[in-house]
Amino acid sequence: MSSGILKSHPAPSLASAPFLRARRRRAQQQRQAFWFILPALIVLLFVYAGPMLYALQASFTHWVLTDIGSENDPAGLSNYTDVLQSRDFWSAVRVTVTYALSSIACGLTLGTAFALLLNLDFFWRSFFRSVMMIPMVITPAVIGIFWKLLYEQEGGVFNYFLTSLGLPPVAWLDLDHSLLSIIIMDVWQTTPFFMLVILAGLQAIDENEIDAARVDGASGFQLFRYILLPHLLPYMLIAAAFRSIAAMGDFDKIWLLTAGGPGDRTTTITIFTYKTGFFAFDIGRTAAIAWIFVVIMLVISAPLMRHLFKTSIAER
Amino acid sequence: MAKIGRRSFILGTAGLAGLSGLRAYAADTLPRRYAGTTLNILSRSSPSVDATIKAGPQFTEATGINLQYTRIAPGDQYQKMILDLTSGAHSFDVTLFVYQWKYEIAPYLADLATIEKDVPGAPPLALDDYPQRLLDIYGRANDKLIGLPLIGDVSFMLWNKDAYQASGLDPEKGPSSWEEIAERGRKMTGGGKYGYALPAGKAIQCAVTWILLYHGFGGRYLDAGNHPELGDEAGLKAMRFIAGDLESIAPPGNLTWDYNEMLGSFLTGQSAQGLMWPGGFASLYDPAKSAVVGRFGMAPPPGGSLLGGTSIGVNAKSTQPEAARLYVSWLCSRETVRETAMGGTSPARLSALDDPTLIAKYPHFPGVKTAMLGETFGYIPIRESEQIHMMIYDEANAACAKAKTPEQAAADLQSKANEFMRRRGYFK
Amino acid sequence: MGSPNRKLIVKTLLSGAWLLIASVYLFPYVWMVLTGIRRPVDTLTMPPRFIFTPSFEGFTALLREVKFQGYLLNSIVVATAVTLIVAAIAGPAAYALAQLRMRGRLFLASILVARMVPGIAIVIPIYLAASRLGLLDTYGVLIAIYTAFNLPFAIWLLRGFFGEVPGEVREAAIIDGASEVQVFVRIVLPLVSTGFVATGVFVFIAAWNEFLFALALTNAHSATAPLAIIGFRNEYGVQWAEIGAAALLISSPVVLFAVIMQKYLVRGLTMGSVKG
Hints:
The complex is a heterotrimer of chains A (316), B (428) and C (276).
Chain A: H1 17-58, H2 78-85, H3 87-118, H4 125-132, H5 134-137, H6 140-150, H7 157-164, H8 178-203, H9 207-215, H10 220-248, H11 252-258, H12 269-278, H13 283-315
Helix pairs in contact in A: 1-13, 2-13, 3-8, 3-10, 3-12, 6-11, 8-10, 10-13, 12-13
Chain B: H1 13-18, E1 38-44, H2 50-54, H3 56-63, E2 66-72, H4 74-86, E3 94-98, H5 102-105, H6 115-118, H7 132-139, E4 140-141, E5 144-145, E6 148-154, E7 156-160, H8 161-166, H9 178-188, H10 204-216, H11 233-248, H12 259-267, E8 273-276, H13 278-285, E9 296-299, E10 305-314, H14 321-331, H15 334-342, H16 350-354, H17 356-361, H18 365-373, E11 376-377, H19 385-400, H20 406-423
Parallel strand pairs in B: 1-2, 1-3, 10-11
Antiparallel strand pairs in B: 3-10, 4-5, 6-10, 7-8, 7-9
Chain C: H1 3-25, H2 27-36, H3 40-44, H4 57-66, H5 68-99, H6 105-116, H7 119-132, H8 139-163, H9 167-175, H10 180-191, H11 193-209, H12 212-217, E1 233-234, E2 237-238, H13 240-260, H14 262-274
Antiparallel strand pairs in C: 1-2
């Protein structure tokens, strides 16, 4: 047994065999672990890191796809300054943020309401639960194309129902309503997601707490506000955080419903990037937009990432 | 891997009936040495090219070369084609294109001038059978012949004679100015009918309409120093006119319209006036599709006729260069052009436009020929003209949608075009 | 006392309420199904005709003219391949993160970062790289991209599932002389089979539904099902019968899959978002 060389370690001495064996085994473990993660690391490097670095390099050029040789034309930071000063870019940011925040707020509210209702006791509960999941898994591209029919001004079903209830028909895809329309479409698709997460939260609640509060005479509303809500808050936050990141990257359904129009009312950052790249073929500028977008995303998702990182480290 | 043939549009029976009596280029003289190969052809989904696709099986039978078409909407073709050509992916051996793209794609297309030498047995090119100016515009770039004219297109203004009559207008007298079009259109708007089939979508036909207005009001694209003048007096007037006068007499939902929808609106009788290209005329004569057969008039648009037109070219990186050239020269040969013209594809060849059998079926041919040989103007004469068109239709669409005022749209168009051309080095 | 009766009444009322809620909420989906099985004229006339003669002209047009079978086949091949490959790659990585003591912080951080990067940011450089390498319009490029996209989420999910396995299980086996790989394959893997199924369901659905990269990277040879739906416009307007049929064919597999596997879906969702 050693004297005071190892400070707080009650372990065997440095020179003892069991300790060395343990150390060697740990090193061996690290090496083996490395092999376990290597394939994933390679794939991610190739598909994410590689192209992003390629894009970074391109963003400092004046590369236009139809202009042969322009990839070698240096542009310095001009692509970045142009984008950050362009009104179209900031309009796209505004549209994206409005879209994301609105649809999450609505989705969360509606999803919580559905979860509360689903948590009650009634017949065919699991049937309803599985059937409510359908909007969540339908191909977003299909939703985009299909809601065009629903939103049709003259022959569309939504307007039919509105007029049959005595309400005026809405021009869903015009200037004033198009942003609202894509938000509604997204809320329809993502509410089931919120519903399921909140439902999980509800089912994790301690029944005793609820019973105790009931015994104490708490009303339904008080129950909700002082017990359920605080308990559900972390679930809501996580769901909202994940969904906000996904919402900012939404492309398929918006592109196919409005193509960013009318005008640029529903042009999100993703649509803006897509058009710059695949219609104007301005690769340099597209790369700059893409990188700015990534930085924005990382900044926004930093709190979430830190939280996830910490909780996962803590788990071990 | 699964091969997918995209859906091709089957023309009405009228086209088929018209094919009798005219045979494509003599099948027995075509070489069979490329039998078994497959050519991928990038084509359009608009009805104006239907006849070219219908004629395909004759070629396959004669040469053993299989033809696989990808038909996409005209608005999507530019993007798809540029991406394919610049990526070197050579998914297509043969592609249709419109001449305003030609400088951008010229480096990627093969020189067709020597087909007769390179591909023994190929039909003669007969280049003198085209109006020479047309051949130059449609097919020549950087001293190469990169395309053969396939569809001869000159813009026309159409009017529905019945609608004119019903509103007390002389059905034989076409409009002589844009203001007249708007005024007459207003008279004919009402009760589910509209005065003008305005394509206000973010697509080329919207830009075409704006360009016709702009030119009609005196606009001339560029000044002496190569600066764009798209927001000047003529440009502003054009923007106001399209967003105000024309949009107000156009059917609702036109904010997504391109060629197909504008044609559909006129031929169903929904709109009483509209722009059209000869390629769409075949549908207008087809009683199975058209409600206006024999009841429409045509004249050059006021202020000058825009020259449009589609060419066909061969990908320089094609893996079957000779087979592709054989196909292209066959499709554009005199005989095949007569046959496809019968089926509705508007020809660019003088021999077809002069053919009495064809004129009997399509009485507008002499008008088209005169227009083609006469005074026409083209698209903005810069290499990246399509990018400018995209700006034009973006702004015009925004103005029509009332997303911005016409003044704002005109100003934005000017500043976008200006900045773009400065970045590309047209001026300092 | 009437209490059990009251409970019954409440339950029935609630079920009725849910029937109403579900019908209203799922109406767009129902409408889509209807559009696929009836004639366009029935779809477009108002008031909505709920009684109609079913027509499969959309389907026949789809199969005969559009050759939808090809798209479907491509989707099946790609989605299945991606699911299997992701499982094979994410499994070990997740296991290593969860069970093996390693300096995994950098790796974990990169997983998180990758999860936040939107597809649009890399679609252009990937397109350019793929075109340079001649990989456009192949199965391989789609499978590679989709694998990378789904890896972060799959690793995340599986890590949670692996984390539920007590560390002692592994340690006991190690002491008994098993190698890490043997422990992983023989002992731990069977314990997390539900986790793999849950992850597989997510990955399959994600790969099946993906649109942007399929649009950018594929052409006639390897276009996947969602792309089939974009071309149905001609001078007569939009062809809703074909679109409806295509929408049905594209979404039915995932809908069925989700309904059958809903237990796993829910497990995966809650695992992935709740468990941090």
